[in-house]
Amino acid sequence: MANFNRVILLGNLTRDPELRTTPKGTSVCQFGMAVNRVFRNGDDTQEETTFVDLEAWGKQAEIISKYVQKGNPLFIEGRLKFDSWESKEGEKRSKLKVIVENMQLMGSRGDNAGGQGGGNFTPAQRSAPAPSNQAPAPSGDIEEDVPF
């Protein structure tokens, strides 16, 4: 039987990303996200918020740490990972988190981009010309060579 582990989320960060480096020099960034769901219950409209812990590695971790902060929207594609451990008191603990595989910066809440394409860039950075051997990147994309 085949398996499939894919998560797609669009939400706002609940805390500033924490960037760390492993002993081998790999960057790892941990952060939280709130994802809202609006639904009808009879004649009433209700909202439900789900809080998700996320982890990004390598270049993506560095980009998230540099360009995203608490409250900013972020689009994530990733996979679920289940961690379990024993606490110092001997209690069994566990946590389900999302490992980021792809992401898209969506702009800040107060950004004039209206939540569309961007991140925290100045107008000059948004309109920076692409190298001549490549097609121009869409407005607001990061001009770094990142394997999203």
Automatic annotation (TrEMBL):
Gene3D superfamilies per record: Nucleic acid-binding proteins (2.40.50.140)
Region: Disordered, residue numbers: 107-148
Name this polypeptide is given: Single-stranded DNA-binding protein
NCBIfam families membership: ssb
One Pfam family per UniProt: SSB
Bias-annotated ranges (Low complexity): 123-139
Subunit structure, interactors included: Homotetramer.
GO biological process: DNA replication
Organism listed in the record: Pelagicoccus mobilis
Record flagged with keyword DNA-binding: yes
GO molecular function: single-stranded DNA binding
Keywords: DNA-binding
Cellular component GO terms, alphabetical: nucleoid
InterPro entries: NA-bd_OB-fold (IPR012340), Primosome_PriB/ssb (IPR000424), ssDNA-bd (IPR011344)
